[in-house]
Fold this protein.
Amino acid sequence: MNTGITIVGLGPGQVEQMTLLAWRTLEHASEVYLRTKHHPLVESLPTKPTYHSFDDLYDQAEDFDTLYQTIAEQIVAQGLREGGVIYAVPGHPMVGEQTTQLILETAHNQNIPVKIVDGLSFIEPSLSALKIDGITGLQIHDATDFIHLYHPPINPDQPALIAQVYSQAVASDTKLTLMNQYPDDYPVVLLHGAGTANEIIERIPLFELDRSEHISYLTTLYVPPMPHPSSFQSLLNIMAHLRSPEGCPWDIKQTHQSLRAHFIEEAYEVIEALDAEDMESLSEELGDILLHVAFQSQIAVDEGEFYITNVVRHIIEKMVRRHPHIFGEVEVEDADHVVRNWEAIKQQEQAQKGENGRKARESRLDGIPAAVPALIYAYRVQEKAAQFGFDWPDVEPVIQKVEEEIREIREANDPESRAKEMGDLLFAVVNWARWMKVDAEAALRGTNERFKRRFAYIEAVAKENGKQIETMTLQEMDSLWDEAKRQGL
């Protein structure tokens, strides 16, 4: 029995662009199934065959996945007939044609042979219209995938073609996804009917993407590369170069441990930028942190320890695993419920580590880095303990505890006891801050900055009056201090 499926690519839209094999395949056929008759060259196809289409299914289907699955099932069923079936699709059968993939999968399971007759895809005429080389890192995506994404899967250092921007709604979702990486006014190009007689090239800023009046099922979006290297891949390449035999002697000699102090310093510079609410500095300092991630990872690659892909994979898996209310079926009541789930999942992870021979945490309070500032450490320890019910019932006993610690400091009669009681007081004050929803570390940093500004004011006024601050009385300095406060310093 002669069965089988032949999938023919019709090309982008002009009959002259059809391959000779595609034309002859249709010319000698008695019956052809078209995915859609809404294609510019359908009226110019060989007249011998009887043409059928699946256009009636487009209005009935709930979504494209269901539609394409139905089409694939019907084509496979036709492929079992004597003589098989010829199925024609726009463009190239293997470029952005979901029905082809479904047919190949189903036909393979049923041992039905499938022949692909190549056709010119949307890519070649798009390259001609844009006058760019398609082998220089061009990325190709489907706009319908962008509907489900929050960040574009695009290397910004390389150009990208995004096909099937077939409606304003798809264009809008695509725009919003791209805006998570590209500026709102980033220049992009809309190609309408590339390779057809009605080809239109529209150069617009990204924010106008969904305002075009020419959007149709033949619309493709071109996103040019960023003018300056901006991708994580470029950063990794620079780091690998610096660590190579042709690289920098200083970078080559660094180890995980030698970079430790630099890493801590960069983290504090991020905090400083946050406290100053300086977004330009924050952007720069976060870049320095990212450099250390790349640096440490490249050292690991050089030492055969792990790859940056391990780093990224681990955090992806962890974020998905710890957000079952987003990526799973768990329901949560509020943010506090999220935190409780998070801690429970962390405990399961630690137990799993122990089963796998890795060091598991022995206490529920483990996991807070010992090197963090003491105020932060105290806050996190109290926060963790509270999650398991070890906490005061309300804020009043917390305040009483602060007052108790002050009395005990006054009663302490030796340096060692005073130091211990002072530590207890600070711990109690941090606990009070936690109950008041105040970040103790940030609050103290703010006070430090205010003290510095006001003292600088005293110095400046003294200098203006020809005085040395060392010669001023405490009363004079207090007066200037109050003046600084009144000025909002």
About this structure: The beta strands are 5-9, 31-34, 50-53, 85-89, 114-117, 139-142, 160-163, 187-192, 200-205, 219-223. Residues 124-223 form a domain with the Methyltransferase, Cobalt-precorrin-4 Transmethylase; Domain 2 fold (CATH 3.30.950.10). The chain has five domains: 5-120, 124-223, 232-321, 374-438, 442-486.
